[in-house]
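Entry 12.
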Amino acid sequence: MGRILFITGTGTGVGKTVLTALLLRYLREEGHQALAMKPFCSGSRADARLLQRLQAADLSLPETNPFLFRHPLAPWVAAKKSGSPQIPLRHALAAIRRLSKRCKILLVEGCGGVLAPLGDNYAAADLISRLGCQTVIVAPNCLGTINHTLLTTKYMQVIGAKDIKVVMMSVENPDSSSRSNMGAIRELLPGISIFSLPHLGRDASKLASVKINVKKMKKMLAQLFGGVIVRPFLPSGSPVRTTKSVDKPALKR
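Predicted 3D structure (tokens):
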């Protein structure tokens, strides 16, 4: 299987889709064989549709989002409300592993927070634990984020998640806590790499904005994967780009 990076968050609407789209566009522009999926969607496929449009030649929308629920609720709750059968854990894992065999790097965007129920007796945290994948936690830089970020990160550490990184997403109307949140979280989570993404506007989740913002965010996106993914090289005389992936320590901030 290819390398799997799971993008989860401290809750819903914190910026997981924007970050996943930026990472996907960046990796593919750099020549990496990367794909992205959002296994679970509730209420709308808008998030998955954005990812699919960034990789339209390689994945269909049902492949990008295999499990869709009509009601905008946690998938486990949405299935109960509509009377639909629950998605077994083994089916969710199989869908992710199936796509990971088709690429070198697979980005998996979660649905809600790490403990939002996806099916009977499992959540995103269980997927991450079973997959043994790297984890990126997305958190909004606003009042309350210290508690939410610590709860999410420490829980992931307890269940044995490896190579955890945190990305703080700036919000449109920052409050006074936004100036001190980063420093506090760095101090309270020693050994965890903390990154910051500026507010990219209300249209940040639109395809055109993603393409533009990747050019602005290249340095940060490269640092996020520092030492883990090596830039592809073009062998002399070869018209085909190849990729290399190695296990090296993540760049320390």
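Annotation: The chain has nine helices and twelve strands. The two ends are 29 Å apart (CA to CA).
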